[in-house]
Write a structure and sequence with these properties.
197 residues, Rossmann fold, 7-stranded mixed β-sheet, 7 helices, 22% strand, Phosphoribosylglycinamide formyltransferase, EC 2.1.2.2, purine biosynthesis, Formyl_transf_N_sf, transferase
Length: 197
């Protein structure tokens, strides 16, 4: 059974998808804790499913590295097999990435390497493209630059706003994330091999 710590910053819709998938006794992964960089709304999902939570706000620390150390300590208490960044909007310090990688994955609302960064959906709309997408990647020290685990295209429709497009991308993102966790748990995806490729 693959144990997961999920890190969030907001509403936690991807987290909820994982929690719901894990309700199935056949699903080979369980969320053991949920962390955040603030008092995130998504903690409500964790509470509903009886999952412990923790938070570490960057503003409470004198440096990003000190914050990273504190966050890593809280993650490691749970000894997770996999850490999932799910709408986690802070860049992890290199020491944290090194400690957790390659068992550290992230979702991104674009078809990488297109539109990396915090505003992938807005950037796709601004660029006037006809399609964007969703990706699941292994986290490295770049910005959305790690090895791609899976991705899928999502059409940009005439009249789409950042909000309407993001809503459709989130549906695909959730499906990709749940499938990626399933494939990692079943050994169909080897994160170490993927990272060395």
């Amino acid at each position: 059974m693959l144990s997961l710590v999920v890190l969030i910053s907001g509403g936690g819709s991807n987290l909820r998808a994982l929690l719901e998938a894990a309700q199935d006794a056949e699903f080979p992964a369980r969320v053991v804790a949920v962390g955040a960089d603030r008092d995130a709304e998504g903690f409500d999902h964790a509470e509903e499913f009886g999952i412990p939570t923790f938070s570490a706000a960057l503003s409470n620390f004198e440096s990003r590295d000190a914050w990273g150390e504190a966050l890593l300590e809280q993650i490691q208490v749970w000894k997770p097999d996999l850490v999932v960044l799910s709408g986690f909007m802070k860049l992890l310090p290199p020491a944290v990435v090194s400690a957790l990688s390659p068992n550290l994955i992230n979702t991104h609302p674009a078809y990488l390497p297109e539109f990396p960064g915090a505003h992938g959906v807005r950037d796709a709309i601004a660029a006037g493209v006809t399609q964007s997408g969703a990706s699941v990647i292994v986290v490295d020290n770049g910005v959305d630059s790690g090895p791609i685990i899976s991705q899928e295209r999502v059409a940009v429709l005439p009249g789409d706003t950042e909000h309407t497009l993001h809503d459709r991308i989130k549906i695909v993102e959730r499906e990709l994330l749940v499938q990626a966790v399933l494939d990692i748990a079943n050994g169909h995806i080897n994160l170490k091999e993927l990272s060395l490729a």
